[in-house]
Amino acid sequence: MKAKVLRYTGLPLLLLVLALICPVQSAAQANPPLTALINGPIYDPAKNVYNGSFSVSDAQAPQYLIYTVEDADAGTVTIPDTQVNLGGFSSRSFQLDGARFKPEGKYLLKVKAVDWSGNLIPRVGDNFTQNTGDQYTLASKEFTHQPPAAANFDFKINAVNADYQADTLSIALSMPGGFQVLAYDGFIVDDTGQKVGVIAKELYQNPELVVPMPAAIDNAAEAHKYKVTLKLYTKDDQQAEQVYEVTLTPPPPPGLLQRIGTALGQTPWIALIIVVVISAVATSLVLFKKKQRRYLPDLRPPVTNTGVNYAAPRRGRLKVRIAQSPGSARGTEKMVTTFPCRIGRGDTCPIRIDDAQLSREHLEITLESGHFFVTDLSRNGTFIGGERLRQGTPTRISGAVSVRLADQTILELDTGD
Hints:
This protein has 4 domains: 1-29; 36-144, Immunoglobulins (Immunoglobulin-like), CATH 2.60.40; 156-248, Immunoglobulin-like (Sandwich); 318-414, Tumour Suppressor Smad4. Helices cover 17% and strands 39% of the residues. The chain contains 4 helices and 25 strands.
């Protein structure tokens, strides 16, 4: 009897247990755990980027993926959570900016998935605890950032030539390709090691540099050896320095006739006075000879030698004060009544200023119809109110005016208006 009971009651229980177990196994087989794979990342040195792709076992399970890049040594986040929409595909490419990574740094790329309810999909099959914080990382990949070493910036000085007429030095360079040069500066020493000039920092424009000639080179009476040290700066903060040794020979001093011709060319009013004097003497000789020959006396009024230096009118006085200058002329004041008046570092200028950046004749002041004009004659410029004057073009001034010559000399001109 007991066997019959077991036979009739045990069989239904067994069938009930099997019915409960089979659906669970079928459901488990129908929804396998989600897995992910990281392909790459592969470094592209030409573009400084990493390329790769993410693959998942079921494209419909996640709503989107999230990847993060961490510094493997420091444990800090280099690239925060970034979403990747699969769009119904089981694989999607990604790209990492190489500029975010340090050379030789080790980094860890992690990928997670979010389901359609907005929850992170946990990884199964591994022993994770609730406190690890990493149970949702489906895949990870460690890589080392190894960009190619940057090329060293270098250049060559081919020649240094002196133009004693323009008071400039030209420096010819050979430049490497692939570098953007931003600026340059330097200095010059003579054969005794003494610094004789400074090459002020300027923006780089082309490999033929033209810089002002230092006064020590311009005034040298014989040939000397000089060392030109030049430093170039690139836009990516690289620097390179070269030293070039050159012998510069000044031109021979001009002869007497050449000096006279130069002086007359620089001061044409002297030549005009000489012409007037010669004309007056010639006229006097002609009149004297006519008297000797008993010709009738010449009743024309005698020729008067007036010259070109006229008496200054009431407003024809200009006060010039050297407010700032590297030389000893600083603070000097002069009342100018003879025009034109030239200012520069040349010995022939009525107002001479010892500043290596000035031209021999840097600025000319003229008086026309009771008005004063200034004209720039230089290479390094003349400035009023921060604006550079156009070379060779007269600019009218009135009242008290501050005029800057090159970088270091400032004049205060007062017309008295």
